[in-house]
Amino acid sequence: MTEQHVEHQLAAAVKPLLDAVGATPVPLGEAKAEDVVLEWEGRPALAVRLPHLSSALDRLLAEMARQFDGRPLAELDRLEKQRVVALLEERGAFTVRHGVETVASALGVSRFTVYNYLNRQDGSKTS
Question: 41, 60, 93, 107: least buried by Cβ within 10 Å?
């Protein structure tokens, strides 16, 4: 099996993961120090460029809209919005700077409402 075929095989295998996290495959010769180099059978096979953290929340919000039949998040009912907040918290969306504000804007609610949804979750976890 040629090295090119192996690279192609690895790239195809990890493509769904790269798409899910917004990463980009990069030719080994163009890899930068911050890129992640994946190995195949002990040899560098594919470099991966991870996205900037600032775009991660936008991707998560787009994924939430897809999960809710492509509807704008602001058009969801209260229970659906609470579910979106719960899913986003599970995925770490609120660790991103201005995460609450960004989510509130996307949902068409106030920051206070997002905090209430988060607090409601925390209360239900300890019950």
Answer: 41
d(CA 113, CA 125): 18
Residue 44's domain comprises: 3-49
| Residue 78, CA distances (Å) to 6, 40, 64 in order | 48, 47, 15
Strand order in 43-49's β-sheet? Answer: 24-26, 43-49, 36-40
pTM to 2 decimals? 0.63
Q: What is the pLDDT of residues 107-123, one digit of tens each?
A: 999 999 999 999 987 66
90 and 61 belong to one structural domain: yes
- In a shared domain, residues 36 and 74: no
